[in-house]
Amino acid sequence: MKIAGWGNVARRGAGALPRRDEEPRAGRAEPRRSAPPPKAAVWVRTDGAGDEWEDAAPPRGRRGRSAPARRPAGSAKEALAALPHRTLLPADVAAEIRNAADTATARHRERLVERAEAAYGAYERGRFLDAARALKPVAEECPGVAAVRELAGLAAYRNNRWREAVRHLDAYEDLSGSTDHVPVVMDCQRALHKRKKVADLWSELRQSSPDPDVLAEGRIVAAAALADAGDLEGAVAMLATAGATKALRNPSERHVRQWYLLGDLYERAGDLPRARQYFERVGKADPGAYDVAERLRGLGPSSRPRPRRTTRPKSAPPAKGSSDAAG
To answer: What is the Cα–Cα distance from 104 to 98, expressed in whole angstroms?
Structure first.
């Protein structure tokens, strides 16, 4: 059962704009993926949740040995309950988790629901590492719950755990029949340098008649994979034949993302005027989008000549006596 909003979050963050594992070219910053996910901040819990919630290194003793962790009194259930911004799951999803763990005690089933709620809340706040850690035992004990596998896959993707993301999201597709996250899986395969798999998934996605946003996201990944292989012309053509080059008065997010990729492709191909054209479109539609301001600064000032300001000639004053002559 799909939890509303997770798909949209994934598509915005999955964004498969140029990811390069090679060294960036000299004199230019490495382009980032669109809507780059925030990095998980170091977050040391102080409410007794235990080591599984701690991202910081354990304290060291005088001789370099790990000091024993101090755990305040209180149950693990109380520690989870103390998490801020817990998000209640829809009743049907919570029921699925309880039913999937039907051989466990009632207390343990409720603990799994609480972990899923904590994971959902952490994901919404951009704490993807915490979300993955909280959800791990739920996914292991309830592998047949589609919403759990979906969130586990998205959290793994945000943490750059490509194979784990593919495993969970493939299971989610099998359980739900949804193709919403195929572009995310494509991007994972791209990160693993499996370009043929990317092409196969793109072909399957096109034949499934998906939502326009999902199709556009898949096209972005497929085009970026072509660019990774050095086929910049083919990548541009893939976007151009789908109408991504058109200038629109009210572009949607998918149009902005495709313009950004076109700008990157043209810059990589050495066509700086066209690169600037598409980055300027992105900046006009959303000045704070991605790193477009930085990309434009990197391209340098525009070489387009500024139109000359022409002064309008003043009309000659009427000759003296002209009014009398007219009369």
So the answer is: 9
Q: Mind giving me the DSSP string for 126-147?
A: T-HHHHHHHHHHHHHH-TT-HH
Cα→Cα distances 161→17, 34, 128, 154, 192, Å: 18, 18, 11, 10, 10
Question: Which of 224, 170, 295, 186 has the alpha carbon at shortest distance from 20?
Answer: 224
Q: To which residue do tokens 């999803």 refer?
A: 93
pLDDT value for 6? 45
**CA-CA distance, 30 to 17, in Å (whole number)?**
12
Q: CB-based contacts of 112: which residues, under 8 Å, 6+ apart?
A: 97, 98, 101, 104, 137, 138, 141, 142
Question: CA-to-CA distance for 172 and 185, rounded, in angstroms?
Answer: 11
> How many residues does this entry show for the chain?
327
Residue 219 has which token pair? Answer: 């096209």
CA pair distance 108, 97, nearest whole angstrom: 11
3-state percent breakdown (helix, strand, coil) of the chain, nearest 5 = 55, 0, 45
Can you tell me the distance from the alpha carbon of 36 to that of 76, in angstroms, rounded to the nearest whole number? 33
Please write the tens of the pLDDT for every residue from 42-58.
Answer: 222 223 333 333 333 33
Does residue 17 contact residue 34 with C-beta atoms inside 8 Å? yes
What is the number of other CB atoms lying within 10 angstroms of the CB of residue 260? 28
* Alpha-carbon span 239 to 236, nearest angstrom: 5
Residue 182 has pLDDT above 80, yes or no: yes
Find the Cα–Cα–Cα–Cα dihedral 49, 53, 55, 57, rounded to 10°. Answer: 50
Q: What is the pTM of this model?
A: 0.69
